[in-house]
Amino acid sequence: MKKKIAVADLSLGMFVGDVFNSANELLISANTMIVSERQIDKFQKTGFTHVIIDTERGIDVKKAPMGLEPLELPVQKVIAIEPSDETKRERDYFQELNKAKVVHRQAILIVKHFYRDIRFAKVLDPRPLLVAVDEMMSSIFRNADALPSLIRIKDVTEYVFNHSVNVSILSIALGKALGYKKESIFEVGLGALLQDCGMMRMPESLMNKKGIYSKAERKLVEKHPIRSVEIIKNIREVPTNCLVIAEQHHERWNGRGYPHHLKGNEIHAYSLIASIADVYDAITSAREYRPARTPQSGLATIFKGSNIDFSREYVQLLTKIIGVYPVGSFVKLNDNSMGIVTQVDKGKLLHPRVLILFNSRGDKLDKPYEIDTSEKLWGTNTYLKSISGSLNPEAFNTEVNKYLEESHGLFQQLSPA
Ligand SMILES: [Fe+2]
């Protein structure tokens, strides 16, 4: 049976599923057994207030906590990420990562060629795009973490193509987590991949603009969803359901988006998904005129937009997919060393792998090394190292992407043949 209890009532032996903040917003699916007091401390310090415990997988509350009766929950709308054998999961991640890197690169190249064909008014061949979406879906179905972890690696000079592919990856992951059937996930992925193709019909001065748009330029740019629809509707192979994503991906939950100022559920579910994926990837990408925000900061921005800019349901889902310390977060450990999160296992969201770049004294290491913060002192339930908080990598002159690319290289060597 599942019960919602206050974090203060957690005790050893309980199995924690979903975790909530004081606004009763779903933050993560921890899916973990409480085996140490430090874990409880961590839940409290991270600002979590309520959790769902599963009394079939762990112990029950001894008595009903004051003012909060254990609650039998209805089936959650948001589909929880399934816990699985951690060793198998890690092996699957490494095995998929190499394939995912190829899928990611190929998709970027395919989009680049397709967008160029639009730009130069050539005859459009959508077949490579269909293959790219199919490959991205297959990768995410083989392993849900590998391909999404690559969206952190971005090339600032090729922003438009990278961004389109990343939005598609996140949209596919969201569609899968929502339990959509494959046909629908394909439509979401393809629509998200093509949503900005209308930008290729904009004046070159706008496309290559390095700074922020003027009022007149913005007005023109806001026509790109309609331009995208004009292009896509003439491509027979693209399902008509993809059109709605192109048309509505800049609409906002409160009606302040464009082009039609639609509100709430007037916006198609596909477009609600694509708009969150679009904004998350945009704010976590560096542009010529501003630096990238950290994944955590990006997630916090999206979270603030719940039921203002975005559907709360899908915001919660994105939080589940990205995690508490997403890949690419720059974090401080309890011994004051600092590093970058390189891999997150969904069963261990608070204990990812970290590439240590700075030692406890703050000295930058010549040879960074990787640790697994889920490792415990032998024979005890005490973690060897744990994360104490997130930091802005730019304050430490740290290029996260460079290290992530290198650490993925390391993964490649470790990965079984
Ligand atoms: Fe757009």
What are its keywords?
417 residues, alpha+beta, Hypothetical protein af1432, 9 strands, globular, binds fe (ii) ion
Briefly say what this structure is:
The protein is built from 14 helices and 9 strands. By secondary structure, the protein is of the alpha+beta class.
What does this structure look like?
It is a single chain. With 417 residues, the chain is α+β, with helices and mostly antiparallel strands. It has three domains: 1-76, no CATH class; 86-321, Orthogonal Bundle (Hypothetical protein af1432), CATH 1.10.3210; 330-414, no CATH class. The protein contains 14 helices and nine strands. It has a five-stranded antiparallel beta sheet with strand order 8-7-6-5-9, with helices on one face. It has a four-stranded antiparallel beta sheet with strand order 1-4-2-3. The relative contact order is 0.11. Residues 63-87 and 409-417 have low confidence and may be disordered. Fe (ii) ion binds next to loops.
Number of strands: 9
One letter per element, helices H and strands E, the order comes to EEEHEHHHHHHHHHHHHEEEEEH
CATH class of the largest domain: Mainly Alpha
Q: Under CATH, the topology of the largest domain is which?
A: Hypothetical protein af1432
- Catalogue the ligands: fe (ii) ion
Task: Compute the CA-based radius of gyration.
Answer: 22 Å
Rounded average pLDDT: 81
Summarize the main sheet.
5 strands, antiparallel
CATH architecture assignment of the largest domain: Orthogonal Bundle
Strand content bin: 5-15%
Q: N- to C-terminal separation?
A: 42 Å
| The CATH H-level homologous superfamily of the largest domain | Hypothetical protein af1432
Shape: globular
Structural class determined from secondary elements: alpha+beta
User: Level of helix content?
Assistant: 40-55%
- Which regions have little confidence, pLDDT < 50, spanning 5+ residues? 63-87, 409-417
Specify the number of helices.
Answer: 14
